[in-house]
């Protein structure tokens, strides 16, 4: 089979690499991809949002199916566009992608169908939002309603911080149209984890759970980022809780979408927190998480291409996973998630041994790879335990000098300290 992967980041590189390892896949194309993907795929210079050219390419290259990585083309209706042209594609329709594209939509869906989540209110004007914050108190969570590249959430420790966040979004247009409506919800305390599932025609194939690290610096300090590292499994979350999460959250969410006349296909990402009252939803996404994908997908023991081909053809599949632990550390440009400088030469990471290097924001030059974004690489290792995987990753990272870049030195600490 020929397969097309749409996207350019670390998540997409992990998807591309998994297809490249698939015995049933002859050629992987990545549109537009990044320079670091060249060893795993042929790059196609078509932007993720250029649906017409992408569809024409898929038809011309006899693409068996297209896999969409990022949320923006999904929210804009790429799946509907491809299907209208008779092309096979894995992902949710524009209508179903609202589960990520509008936090207000997701919260209303959960409320209607009794899916456990934080109490909330939705606002489009500053003054009523401020009154709600004053009456509720802090800590409190402020979320831009629309897509904000994983950065539209502020966990405010004080009322003043919460009010500033609301003003930034509603008056300052910090996230453009995505922040023209905000969801304000109660702060939930507990252990967070990511529960991702493949979904097709009502069949749900859960993946091993994972946990990412959103804060920029060690000890979960500093600003929220798109994710500084991840690991899987999450031993502090029991099998009983995983089963409860599937039964109380994942399965009902898929049922709710079908009942609303917008059946969900694709990757359902449930960001979950284990509270004193049980697991509750923090957010839903309509695609793989980043960096969770990079530590979950390589644990697949089944043939990825054969699996996708089977479920897209209406056949059930016995999906198998490895039992090993995997832990990944993100290398980010100094200043991330704020202002960063592009074009700084990366050390020769080809020297690293027994680890996987996934490219997120890099560009190849005659002198080697340079950074081309905030998060540039993810370096991961497998191990019989999380401690072994963690030790291996940091042992290798410490061999190189990362001038102009930084990474957290404690990825996995919650699991390993427990």
Automatic annotation (TrEMBL):
- Pathway field: Purine metabolism; IMP biosynthesis via de novo pathway; N(1)-(5-phospho-D-ribosyl)glycinamide from 5-phospho-alpha-D-ribose 1-diphosphate: step 2/2
Q: Name one GO molecular function term.
A: phosphoribosylamine-glycine ligase activity
- Give the catalysed reaction(s), semicolon-separated: 5-phospho-beta-D-ribosylamine + glycine + ATP = N(1)-(5-phospho-beta-D-ribosyl)glycinamide + ADP + phosphate + H(+)
Domain of life the protein comes from? Bacteria
EC identifiers of the protein? 6.3.4.13
Its top-level enzyme class, in one word, is ligase
Q: Which Gene3D superfamilies match?
A: 3.40.50.20, ATP-grasp fold, A domain, ATP-grasp fold, B domain, Phosphoribosylglycinamide synthetase, C-terminal domain
Protein family according to the UniProt entry: Belongs to the GARS family.
- Which HAMAP family does this entry report, sorted A to Z? GARS
Protein name (Swiss-Prot/TrEMBL): Phosphoribosylamine--glycine ligase
> What is the originating organism of this protein?
Planococcus massiliensis
Q: What is the lineage of its organism?
A: Bacteria, Bacillati, Bacillota, Bacilli, Bacillales
- Tell me what gene encodes this: purD
């Amino acid at each position: 089979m020929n397969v097309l992967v749409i996207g350019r980041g670390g998540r997409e590189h992990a998807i591309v690499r998994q297809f490249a390892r698939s015995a049933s896949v002859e050629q992987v194309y990545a549109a537009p991809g990044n320079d670091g993907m060249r060893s795993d795929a042929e790059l196609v210079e078509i932007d993720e949002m250029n649906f017409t050219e992408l569809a024409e390419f898929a038809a011309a290259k006899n693409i068996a199916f297209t896999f969409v990585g990022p949320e923006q083309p999904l929210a804009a209706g790429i799946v509907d566009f491809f299907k209208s042209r008779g092309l096979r594609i894995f992902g949710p329709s524009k209508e179903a992608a609202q589960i990520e594209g509008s936090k207000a939509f997701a919260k209303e869906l959960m409320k209607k169908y009794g899916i456990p989540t934080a109490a909330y209110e939705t606002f489009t004007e500053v003054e009523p939002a401020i009154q709600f914050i004053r009456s509720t108190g802090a800590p409190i969570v402020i979320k831009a309603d629309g897509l904000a590249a994983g950065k539209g959430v502020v966990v405010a420790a004080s009322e003043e911080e919460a009010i500033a966040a609301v003003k930034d979004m509603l008056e300052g247009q910090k996230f453009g149209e995505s922040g023209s409506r905000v969801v304000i919800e109660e702060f939930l305390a507990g252990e967070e984890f990511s529960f991702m599932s493949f979904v097709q025609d009502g069949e749900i194939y859960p993946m091993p759970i994972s946990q990412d690290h959103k804060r920029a610096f060690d000890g979960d300090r500093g600003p929220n980022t798109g994710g500084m590292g991840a690991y899987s499994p999450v031993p502090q979350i029991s099998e009983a809780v995983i089963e409860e999460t599937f039964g109380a959250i994942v399965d009902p969410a898929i049922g709710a979408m079908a009942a609303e006349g917008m059946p969900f296909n694709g990757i359902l990402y449930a960001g979950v927190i284990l509270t004193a009252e049980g697991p509750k939803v923090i957010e839903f996404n309509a695609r793989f998480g980043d960096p969770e994908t990079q530590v979950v997908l390589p644990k697949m023991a089944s043939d990825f291409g054969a699996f996708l081909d089977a479920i897209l053809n209406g056949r059930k599949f016995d999906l198998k996973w490895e039992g090993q632990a995997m832990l990944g550390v993100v290398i980010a440009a100094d200043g991330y998630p704020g202002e960063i400088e592009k074009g700084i030469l990366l050390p020769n990471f080809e020297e690293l041994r027994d680890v996987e290097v996934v490219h997120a924001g890099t560009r190849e030059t005659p002198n080697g790879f340079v950074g081309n974004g905030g998060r540039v690489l993810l370096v991961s290792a497998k191990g019989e335990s999380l401690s072994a995987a963690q030790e291996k990753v940091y042992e290798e990272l410490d061999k190189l000098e990362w001038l102009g870049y930084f990474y957290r030195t404690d990825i996995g600490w919650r699991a390993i300290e427990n």
